[in-house]
Specification:
Elements: H1 3-29, H2 37-56, H3 60-82, H4 98-103, H5 110-121, H6 126-137
Helix pairs in contact: 1-3, 2-3, 5-6
């Protein structure tokens, strides 16, 4: 076995390891949110076709890579089908919060608008602003978030 074949097999193993977080989340959380069945079906077909070619030309590294991709993609598709429409809490969209949600007038509350102004001045991306707002909402008493995780401690 040459050094490039060893490197190629290590790369195939790394590609397989990249699937582990997705599969782990699917299995542990029983959550299929964010999984596109059509995209994974296309990836599965592509893997089967390229692996068939790799087998035909006896390309060991690509046969290994294709096998890993076929197994991982099929497993993701099976779990996604099994856990269809069962998002975990981190993928469930949160209801509107704050005084604006309670009043129904669509206006923003003072905390959120001041955080956005601060974020814009600091040049933060929209994603970082949303993350900062989400974190700060846990500190505000007016969010309406129920403390169900504290059940029995009060």
């Amino acid at each position: 076995m040459t050094a490039t074949e060893i490197a190629g097999l290590a790369g195939a193993g790394l590609a397989g390891a990249a699937y582990v977080p997705q599969i782990s989340h699917l299995v542990r959380a029983r959550c299929s949110a964010g999984i596109s069945p059509l995209a994974f079906a296309a990836w599965l077909l592509a893997s089967v076709l390229t692996t068939a070619h790799a087998v035909a030309i006896s390309a060991t590294v690509f046969v290994a890579l294709g096998g890993i991709q076929i197994v991982a993609t099929a497993l993701i598709m099976l779990c996604a089908a099994r856990y269809k429409d069962t998002p975990c809490p981190s993928h469930v969209s949160r209801p509107a919060r704050g005084r604006a949600a309670a009043s129904g007038d669509g206006s923003d509350n003072e905390h959120g608008s001041s955080l956005r102004a601060f974020s814009r001045r600091r040049g933060m991306s929209a994603w970082r602003r949303a993350l900062r707002e989400r974190r700060s909402s846990y500190l505000r008493p007016d969010t309406g978030i129920q403390a169900t995780h504290l059940k029995g401690t009060i």
